[in-house]
Design a protein that fits this description.
heterodimer, A: 261 residues, mainly alpha, Serine Threonine Protein Phosphatase 5, Tetratricopeptide repeat, 13 helices, flat, B: 194 residues, Rna Polymerase Sigma Factor, Chain: A, 2 domains, 10 helices, transmembrane helix (chain A), TPR-like_helical_dom_sf (chain A)
């Protein structure tokens, strides 16, 4: 029998749901010819997606070139200056130098010490795999999905782990990471409140540090909980993030941080 | 230009057609977000061109994730796109670091079984997809693109000058079969499945 391409496409695009989807999956499992057709359609869809991406890239290139042309027109304007006396010229140059220095300092501070930039820098040095434990395969898969920005599927699994599961707190911790990566810092902190109940001290310490980074992203360094967490980490030289906390605290008290924030 | 809410952007991209194009243009024109991405890339060993590239690649991923229902509507599109761009850049840096490592002969032993081989495979796959699309021809390629972008058969008929939706359906089927045949004719074609 000729395979039903429309049904295969509906299955691959996610349009086939619930019982119908399960029934079709059972059909695929029992029919190698159908399974082969599903694989071929999957590859064909990937090829078409490749083409759609290429079209978008070409479109962006076109828009970018149009923008650049516009900029050049602006830049091409010639400003004619009236002759000035020497003293005024010297003062103007001095003012320009001061302005350049001020702008440069502000730029440097903003690039290196802006609150969200600090959070990003610290977050990138935070390993993600440390709390994948146990025999369950789903947790590493969910973490891989977070890495692939497939947050919907990762979150769906992580939220489904029941509270009596031994990996419940690990799942909540990774859910907090997923929300952090999605820019949902408040929601991430709400989840991290639960992880404080975990028996694993390393998990609790990583959760606290992630909370600190959420506050940093939110630019809420004056928040009481942020201050308390940071002070605790600084006071405890056995804390996993003791050195990070000391380093962050130095930056928060620096001249550059005050300029940038 | 029309100002979109996140829900409107998602709806427009899912619906396809010119609405999708306008929605993508709206996202593309989010100057603050683009500057934020460029800023991030520049601060992480990249330059402005890298930053712009990441912004573009991020929109491509966003577009696809919305169409494939992988975007969770509870997070904002801006936050989601920004996080995609950040992690795309990190992945690229990691990949580059591994290639640099490969070029360093003293480190060769440590990596010969890992990523470079996968990288080669990925390039080969791109080449295969490119050949598949080439043999398909422009018209067929366009029909399949429109179909994957959720155009109805009536809209495809209008866009491609077919006399009816029925004719559009027949052509879509023919083009799809041609693409499937191309892949099935490749030796060990299943190795290319993701």
């Amino acid at each position: 029998m000729e395979p039903d391409i429309d049904k295969i496409e509906a299955y691959l695009s996610g349009a086939l749901a619930g019982a119908e989807r399960q029934a079709f999956e059972a059909e695929i499992a029992g029919d190698p010819a159908l399974a082969e057709e599903v694989d071929a359609v999957r590859l064909a869809r990937e090829a078409v997606e490749f083409s759609i991406s290429s079209n978008l890239r070409a479109q962006f290139q076109e828009w970018q070139e149009a923008e650049a042309t516009g900029t050049k027109t602006e830049e091409a304007r010639v400003v004619t200056m009236a002759p000035r006396r020497n003293l005024r010229r010297v003062l103007a140059i001095a003012a320009s130098v001061l302005l350049i220095l001020a702008v440069g300092s502000f730029w440097y501070a903003n690039e290196q010490f802006a609150s969200d930039q600090l959070a990003m820098d610290y977050y990138e040095n935070m390993p993600l795999d440390l709390h994948i434990r146990g025999n369950a395969e789903e947790l590493p898969e969910a973490v891989a999905k977070i890495r692939d920005n497939n947050f919907a599927e990762a979150d769906a699994y992580l939220r489904s782990v029941p509270a009596d599961d031994p990996l419940y707190y690990n799942a909540r911790y990774y859910l907090a990471h997923s929300l952090h990566r999605q820019g949902e810092y408040d929601a991430s902190n709400d989840i991290l409140n639960e992880v404080n109940e975990a028996s694993n001290p390393n998990l609790r310490e990583d959760a606290s540090w992630l909370k600190v980074l959420n506050y940093l992203e939110l630019e809420q360094t004056g928040n009481d909980e942020f201050q308390t967490l940071l002070e605790e980490m600084i006071a405890d030289d056995g804390h996993t993030h003791h050195n990070d906390a000391v380093n962050l605290n130095d930056k928060l008290n620096s001249f550059w941080y005050n300029i940038a924030n | 230009m029309k100002v979109y809410t996140d829900q409107e952007l998602v709806a427009a991209i899912k619906k396809g057609g010119s609405g999708r194009q306008e929605a993508i243009r709206f996202i593309y024109n989010k100057g603050d977000l683009r500057r934020k991405v460029v800023h991030f890339v520049r601060n992480n060993q990249g330059n402005d061109a890298d930053g712009n590239d990441m912004f573009h690649e991020g929109i491509i991923v966003l577009d696809r994730n919305i169409r494939e229902d992988k975007f969770r509507a509870e997070s904002s599109i801006e936050g989601y796109l920004y996080s995609i761009c950040r992690f795309l850049w990190q992945n690229q840096r990691r990949k580059k670091a591994r290639v640099d490592l490969k070029e360093d002969a003293t480190q060769m032993d440590q990596i010969e079984t890992s990523t470079p081989e996968l990288q080669l495979l990925s390039d080969e796959k791109k080449n295969l997809l490119h050949r598949a699309l080439e043999q398909l021809g422009e018209r067929c390629k366009r029909i399949l693109e429109l179909w994957q972008l959720s155009y109805s058969m009536e809209e495809i008929a209008t866009e491609m000058d077919f006399s009816s939706a029925q004719m559009a359906r027949k052509n879509k089927y023919r083009c799809q079969q041609s693409l499937l045949k191309f892949f099935k004719d490749q030796p060990q074609w299943k190795q290319w499945l993701s």
